[in-house]
Amino acid sequence: MGADVIFNDSGVPLMAFGTRHFAQTTGVPLKSKKLAEPKNDDPDTTQVGKINISSWGSNNDFPTTADVTINKVGVLNSGLKFMRNFTLGQGIFPVIVEGYDDKGNEILKPVDDLQLRAFANSRMVRRYLEKAVRDYFKFGPAFIQLIPNEDGSKLVGINTINAKYCRLGVADSAGVINKCVVSGAWPDSPSAGNMNTIDVLDDYDPLADLNRIKLKNQIKGKSFIYTIRDSWSNNEYYSSPIWYSSYLAGWVDIALDVPTFLKKAYENQISWKWHVQIPYAFWDKKFPLTKYPDTKLRQAAISDYLDTIEENLTSPENANKAIFTFFEVNPVNQKIEEQWIIQPLENKLNAEQNLISSAAANSEILFSLMINPNVLGAGMPGGTYAGNQGGSNIREAFLVNIANSWLDRQNLLDPLEAFVRFNGGKDNIEWRFKNTILTTLDTGSGTTKTVS
Predict the structure, then answer these.
(1) Cis link prior to 187 (omega < 30° from 0)?
(2) pTM score, two decimals?
(3) 54 and 177 share one domain
(4) Rounded to whole angstroms, how far apart are CA atoms 382 and 385?
(5) Are 436 and 91 within 8 A, CB to CB?
(6) What does the alpha-carbon distance between residue 71 and residue 84 come to, in Å, rounded to a whole number?
(7) What is the pLDDT of residues 138-158, one digit of tens each?
(8) Which of 3, 27, 143, 323 is deepest in the core (most CB within 10 A)?
């Protein structure tokens, strides 16, 4: 008969599609194994030559697996791209803050330095910002390379190294991270000829550290890594990306699984007769991991078991027979656990509930990114996630996004500030982002320019 079964990496069946039934596992697994965790307060380490590096994730492959997951989930991918776009706004420009008005707003004076303006509008800076904010939101940290001229007197280049290729060395006895190993071989350990080791600037004051290196005449022929990260996750090496909480909560998995379900539903909606819902705990007891030396053997046993269930439900010789299932009652909270639910289906499957689950997953993922779903047209017409999708609501949500982007923007500007001041730029010169804000028609224009 052969049920088509979708397993997770631990060999637990998530969905099964038979010729006459559809089955799904209900509840939440104890721990998802699809994505390596970026937790690293007490890091796993990997020896690469003479350098002991902190592994990024349990298999040293977090950015690789994270990138695969992001590319599979449309709302996560587009949400992160939206964050990149509104964070960058319409570019940057240098200013001097002359004071503040009665409302606390900055009084800004543009800097009449043609070289600084050309620098702000250069492809090098635009390329740095675009790539840095990409890695910052997708993976957590971004790795910025500052490149000096031949004699080390000035910085001439600023470049974002793809975070997928970067691993940080373990901190020294003073807690300072000194090295970054760059290689395209990760997560495998690179050979000596397939890696580049770059000094990391002290996170406490990178500009002061760079000036100390210059005074020691140790800057020639080198480049340096300036790391930027959101410290919210408290991880010292690789900060967790903003969307990771929605992954841990299972919403990313739901957003992945619902399209698979719907595709199968449309293929089989005429022939399905039963919808079987099986709790995760059942598989752990019926097919314990310790019983099977190989995950594929466990998957094969589960597939055979599901075929037996389908045969019992649909074969002519088993017509009118009963199927017996068992469940437990938790003595603490009196909730029913491990209960199977078997429901007959009409000839035409109603997928409305799954569409609602998909919309909820999309909303929860956007909430984790601090994006109002209405901004992307993802608001739901009714229920818990209902929202007004009118123009005013979208404009206000966008303004909130811009207001919340202040800290992220400062993190992005820090390496540029260090670059300019190392080259002799004045300390009173600061950098601001330009924004285009949507307005209502009664203001006389469709957009207005603001600075932040």
Answers:
(1) yes
(2) 0.71
(3) yes
(4) 7
(5) no
(6) 15
(7) 999 999 999 999 999 999 999
(8) 143
